């Protein structure tokens, strides 16, 4: 099993659908935030703003937030964008929440700066901000006077590198294609960078990267074109599982199943099934469920006045056919032990 313990971190946080949802822990008369001491701010509800629930990755982030809220006796109000490209709608949701009395904000921005304006209003009230999964642009944050309490997320360059190592192992040599998410997206670029470094170091030939906006159907179209343009293609790396599954469908449609290896990143349920069936060679699993839990845990600590680490790495693990049963049994939680610096 190729699990990297240094990347493993913790569980903790809450989320709920596309509408506002208030959650109170079972057996509690009111929100406590799970915080130590008598500081009133430690008992305030937490607001969470995440990407669109049209992607299963963020549905799992929601599940992790909900689970942690119940465990900790916390109250959380969550809003999600309508889609993973709905930057304006997500910013409007945050702006509305920023006018209310929350003790902490958990934010998962669609882009590096689409939530900065709203978060500046939050920062002006000295309310802590916990950034999860997709980083806020540091220059934009500085310009707005926004200080983030902590960032919790996958080391995406490392995840890409793990995928690169597996691709090299799977194909040995030859031509490989890369399908990225939204052009310029920081997460996509980091994964592609990590993958590219490993692939080129091993002598693989890479064709120019194409973007499929994180979407399965667009990746299907892109992969179909790539396969037609490069008859000698031996592998496709996709920066997320939805695109990886689209690429795998294109490979099957072309009658090249098993001949063209497909490796992606995320480790969602469909991808695990595809690894089990052989449609995907591997997926680098990250754990949005754990990231959601960790986000709420971080808010609880911040509201209690605790100093948080500036950066916390979330768990990742390579899932191939030899460990996929273990991964499926533990899903959506990590299938190997990991350290939680926030728990």
* Low-confidence segments: 1-38
**Secondary-structure element sequence?**
EHEHEHEHEHEHEEHEHEHEHEEH
Q: Roughly how many Å is the radius of gyration?
A: 20 Å
- The number of helical runs is 11
Strand content: 15-25%
- The structural domain count equals 2
In this structure, how is the largest beta sheet organized?
Answer: 7 strands, mixed
CATH architecture term of the largest domain: 3-Layer(aba) Sandwich
The CATH first-level class of the largest domain comes to Alpha Beta
Query: What gap, in angstroms, lies between the N and C termini?
Result: 26 Å
Oligomeric form: single chain
CATH topology of the largest domain: Rossmann fold
CATH superfamily of the largest domain: Response regulator
- Overall morphology: elongated
What structural class should be given to the helix and strand makeup?
A: alpha/beta
Give the strand tally.
13
The whole-number mean of residue pLDDT values reads: 88
Helix content: 25-40%
Structure commentary:
The protein is α/β, with parallel strands linked by helices and 343 residues long. The chain folds into two domains: 5-154 and 287-314, 3-Layer(aba) Sandwich (Rossmann fold); 156-286, Rossmann fold (3-Layer(aba) Sandwich), CATH 3.40.50. It has helices at 56-72, 87-98, 116-124, 138-144, 156-171, 186-201, 216-229, 241-253, 269-277, 288-303, 324-330, and strands spanning 46-50, 76-80, 104-107, 129-132, 150-153, 175-180, 205-206, 210-211, 233-238, 261-266, 282-286, 311-313, 316-319. The strands form two sheets. Strands 6, 7, 8, 9, 10, 11 and 13 form a seven-stranded mixed beta sheet that branches. α5 packs parallel to α6 (186-201). 58% of the residues are buried. Residues 1-24 form the signal peptide. This is Substrate-binding domain-containing protein. Keywords: Signal.
């Amino acid at each position: 099993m190729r699990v990297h313990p240094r990347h493993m971190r913790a569980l903790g946080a809450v989320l709920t659908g596309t509408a506002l949802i208030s959650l109170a822990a079972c057996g509690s008369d009111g929100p406590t935030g799970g915080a130590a001491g008598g500081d009133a701010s430690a008992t305030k509800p937490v607001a969470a703003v995440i990407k669109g629930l049209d992607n299963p990755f963020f549905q799992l982030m929601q599940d992790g937030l909900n689970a942690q809220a119940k465990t900790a006796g916390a109250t959380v109000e969550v809003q999600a964008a309508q889609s993973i490209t709905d930057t304006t709608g997500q910013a409007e949701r945050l702006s509305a929440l920023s006018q209310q009395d929350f003790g902490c904000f958990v934010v998962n921005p669609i882009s590096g700066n689409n939530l900065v304006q709203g978060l500046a209003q939050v920062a002006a009230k000295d309310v802590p901000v916990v950034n999860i999964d997709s980083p806020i642009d540091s220059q934009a944050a500085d310009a707005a006077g926004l200080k983030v309490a902590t960032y919790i997320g996958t080391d995406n360059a490392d995840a890409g590198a793990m995928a690169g190592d597996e691709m090299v192992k799977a194909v040995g040599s030859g031509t490989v294609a890369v399908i990225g998410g939204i052009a310029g997206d920081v997460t996509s670029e980091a994964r592609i960078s990590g993958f590219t470094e490993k692939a080129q170091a091993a002598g693989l030939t890479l064709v120019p990267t194409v973007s499929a906006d994180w979407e399965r159907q667009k990746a299907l179209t892109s992969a179909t074109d790539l396969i037609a343009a490069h008859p000698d293609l031996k592998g496709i790396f996709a920066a997320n599982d939805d695109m990886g599954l689209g690429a795998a469908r294109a490979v099957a449609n072309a009658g090249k199943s098993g001949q063209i290896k497909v490796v992606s990143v995320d480790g969602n349920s469909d991808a695990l099934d595809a690894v089990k069936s052989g449609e995907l060679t591997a997926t680098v699993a990250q754990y949005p469920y754990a990231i959601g839990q960790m986000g709420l845990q971080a808010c609880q600590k911040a509201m209690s006045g605790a100093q948080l680490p500036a950066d916390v790495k979330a768990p990742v693990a390579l899932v191939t056919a030899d460990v996929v049963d273990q991964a499926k049994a533990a899903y959506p939680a990590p299938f190997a032990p990991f350290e939680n610096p926030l728990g």
